[in-house]
Each structure stands twice: as structure tokens, then as C-alpha cells.
């Protein structure tokens, strides 16, 4: 949906910065890293995945989840039950639930208004209620009833969510660098802490450029780190400068 909006404006979505918490088994498992390559290959969009520093982060989704929970709790008090995720989705739609969205940002984008300069990386334009389905027949049925709100999840590739890659606990930013799919290799840029200095912003997907970062002793950038992403040839892993693997299967079997 986001890509379609860019296309309608005659623009191209080149990269996305994703912020999540730092749950290792959820976001530092093998599949999550491989998806950085798959998204680039399928959609031609580069991803920067930033992980929150533990005990010091509240994301926009926390407030969104609370708003939905309070709405459904009020419906429970009116004896309108929501025992399943599908019921939660239908009840919020039928109950006319709406987020308090900041519609001005879209207007600023359309008119190139100078107020865009005040927007930071945690500012959201809008939030919507959606439902993720893993059944294509159900997706085809409900996407017609609720256009723009239904997402089909490809469950042929189910994350293990049981093991995270070793030695990744200090990584707080991972981004796509390059890929050589013919030989099953890919390269990632890693940071112990995210950096938003001008140099790093302009070279975030480049294999070089981090040496000039004024905060490199803190963020500790590692550029062009090799990842073996072809499981048929060898166990997948990410290698550091010394050739020591970050461990685990770095790929989708």
C-alpha cells in the first residue's frame, strides 16, 4: 500500500527505516536478516532495521496498541466480545474506531511544505487497523470487503523464533549493502548503535564511508559484512572482519 502511494505521486520508494524492540528470538533470528535481501530482490526496496536499546525505548506502536485495547475493553463492557484476532478487527471496523492521526503531514508532503523539516524519525503520518491472513481464499474474500486493510502472509516460510544468531546482542542497526545472488552471497552493514550523522545517512547502504563518522567509536560501524544466503551450498552465516561467523543458520531452509 505504501509503495502504491509513492507510485501515484510519481515517486519511487527507495528505502524504509524500521524500528522495533530488541527481542532476539523474534528479530535476530536467521529469517529476519535474510528478509533484508529478499525485500530488495522482490520489491527493489532497501531496509534499515534499527533495534531499540533495552530499557530505554517506547515505540509508536505501544500507544497504538493501548488505544485499540481500551476501545475493545469498552466494547466488552457493552457485551460485544472479541475472542479472536478476526473479531478484534471486525469490531474495530464496525465500531468506527479511528486513530488520532496527524493528517497534516500528508498535506505537507503533497505541497513540499517547509514544515516537513520539523518531522523526525519517530513521527507518524497515520495509523490504520489491519488484519493479516495466511489463507489466500480468505484474503481474496475479505480484501474486497475491506480494501487496503488486509495483508496476505506467506506462511510457506515460517520463522523459527527459537534461536537468535550468536553474538548479535550488541547489534542495534542492520541494513542492506549488496547482494550477489548468483553465488549465494550478500553483504550487510552493521552498527552497535544507530547513527544519524550526515555522513552515515548519506552512505547508509554503501560498502564504505563509515570511517569518517565522528561517532564511530560509539556506534562501531561494520560495513560490507559477508552473509552466505544460499543454504544449498553452505550453512548460512554472517562473517565479521576476521571471518568469524555470527553463528546459526543464516537463511531459510
For the sheet with most strands, the description reads: 5 strands, mixed
Low-pLDDT sequence parts: 231-253
Give the beta-strand count.
Answer: 7
**Which radius of gyration do the C-alpha atoms yield?**
20 Å
What is the rounded distance between the termini? 29 Å
**Residues in β-strands, percent:** 15-25%
Order of helices and strands, N to C? HEHHEHHHEHEEEHHE
What's the total helix number?
9
Oligomer category:
single chain
Strand order of the largest sheet: 1-2-5-6-7
Helix content: 25-40%
- Rounded mean pLDDT score: 75
Shape: globular
Secondary-structure content class: alpha/beta
Tell me about this structure.
- By secondary structure, the protein is of the alpha/beta class.
- It has helices at 2-8, 24-27, 30-43, 60-77, 85-94, 104-111, 136-145, 198-202, 216-219; strands at residues 15-20, 46-51, 131-133, 150-152, 173-180, 185-191, 222-228.
- Helix content is 32%, strand content 16%.
- The chain is globular.
Amino acid at each position: 500500500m505504501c509503495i502504491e502511494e509513492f507510485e501515484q505521486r510519481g515517486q519511487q520508494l527507495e528505502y524504509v527505516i524500521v524500528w522495533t524492540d530488541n527481542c532476539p528470538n523474534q528479530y535476530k533470528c536467521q529469517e529476519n536478516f535474510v528478509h533484508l535481501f529478499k525485500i530488495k530482490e522482490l520489491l527493489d526496496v532497501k531496509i534499515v532495521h534499527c533495534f531499540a536499546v533495552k530499557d530505554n525505548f517506547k515505540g509508536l506502536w505501544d500507544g497504538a496498541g493501548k488505544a485499540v485495547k481500551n476501545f475493545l475493553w469498552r466494547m466488552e463492557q457493552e457485551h460485544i466480545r472479541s475472542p479472536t484476532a478476526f473479531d478484534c478487527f471486525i469490531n474495530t471496523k464496525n465500531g468506527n474506531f479511528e486513530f488520532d492521526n496527524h493528517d497534516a503531514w500528508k498535506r505537507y508532503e503533497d505541497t513540499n511544505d517547509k514544515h516537513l523539516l520539523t518531522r523526525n524519525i519517530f513521527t507518524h503520518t497515520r495509523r490504520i487497523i489491519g488484519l493479516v491472513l495466511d489463507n489466500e481464499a480468505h484474503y481474496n474474500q475479505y480484501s474486497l470487503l475491506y480494501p487496503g486493510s488486509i495483508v496476505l502472509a506467506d506462511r510457506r516460510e515460517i520463522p523459527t523464533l527459537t534461536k537468535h544468531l550468536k553474538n548479535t546482542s550488541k547489534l542495534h542497526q542492520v541494513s542492506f549493502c549488496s547482494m550477489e545472488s548468483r553465488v549465494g552471497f550478500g553483504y550487510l552493514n552493521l552498527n552497535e548503535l544507530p547513527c544519524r550523522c550526515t555522513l552515515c545517512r548519506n552512505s547508509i547502504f554503501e560498502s564504505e564511508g563509515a570511517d569518517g563518522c565522528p561517532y564511530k567509536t560509539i556506534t562501531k560501524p561494520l560495513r560490507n559484512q559477508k552473509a552466505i544466503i544460499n543454504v544449498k551450498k553452505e550453512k548460512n552465516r554472517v562473517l565479521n572482519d576476521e571471518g568469524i561467523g555470527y553463528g546459526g543458520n543464516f537463511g531459510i531452509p
